[in-house]
Write a structure and sequence with these properties.
single chain, about 240 residues, alpha/beta, Rossmann fold, nine-stranded mixed β-sheet, two-stranded antiparallel ribbon, binds manganese (II) ion, hydrolase, membrane, PuuD-like
Length: about 240
């Protein structure tokens, strides 16, 4: 029997050449494989719901990353769907089931952007549908003209895993989101915030490893040694 650790990643789907395809950014697959971990992709399709018990029978951790908006149905917000970008109810259903299972079984969870939002929602928090409506663009959290080069500052709080990894209070981070944490789930703790007060990192102090970051360390991997430590700590906790 293989002793390799297995990490679940729910894919994302979109139309390509008139048919639905499932995909995930290769960078996560590379980082996990280089860390000796086997990524297991959980596809978004109707048949997956029936297979979920089997996916959840044998895995060591869950990685959740980018994707469309999470449906406000999961955090009881009155809403109009017109405020949502792309959203996929089946991805929501599959991913929240995986997230709740990992929570209940104390399996490590690492979430970026939408993945952080999912952690907050699964633990009982809520989300802003559009952060720029709240902050009046005092901080720009998504800039399509400078998609990969745009940065905004964050302040990292003392005595948090984020401070252990980055070892500095002020950091410039990338940013690709228009949803954001509104009410933080009661058991979770904020690790960083942007100048407009938006939470940019969360963790669960009592779980083995539950970490969510609003930014994407893998997309600025060479910019700071802390970026690698995020993934190393996750892999070490499996
Ligand atoms: Mn941001």
């Amino acid at each position: 029997m293989s002793t390799k650790k297995k990490v679940l990643i729910v894919t994302r789907r979109e139309l390509r050449k008139n048919k639905l395809i499932n995909w995930v950014s290769e960078i996560y697959l590379q980082i996990l494989a280089q860390g000796g971990v086997m990524p297991i992709l959980v596809p978004i399709s109707q048949g997956t719901i029936a297979n979920l018990p089997d996916y959840l029978e044998d895995y060591d951790g869950l990685l959740m990353s980018e994707g469309g908006d999470i449906s406000p149905a999961y955090y009881n917000e009155s809403y109009s769907v017109s405020k949502l970008d792309e959203y996929d109810p089946i991805k929501d259903e599959i991913e929240i089931a995986c997230c709740r299972h990992a929570m209940e079984h104390n399996k490590p969870i690492l979430g970026f952007c939408r993945g952080m939002h999912m952690i907050n929602v699964a633990f009982g928090g809520s989300l802003h549908l559009d952060v720029h409506e709240v902050n009046k663009r005092s901080v720009v959290h998504i800039d399509y003209d400078h998609y990969d080069t745009h940065r905004h500052p964050i302040t990292i709080f003392e005595n948090t895993p984020l401070m252990e990894w980055y070892k500095q209070k002020d950091l410039l981070v990338n940013t690709y989101h228009h949803q954001g944490v509104k009410k933080l789930a009661p058991e979770l703790v904020a690790m960083a915030q942007a100048p407009d007060g938006l939470i940019e990192g969360i963790y669960h102090p009592k779980h083995k490893f539950v970490v969510g970051l609003q930014f994407h360390p893998e997309r600025m991997y060479q910019e700071h040694p802390g970026n690698k430590l995020v993934f190393k700590s996750f892999i070490d906790s499996l």
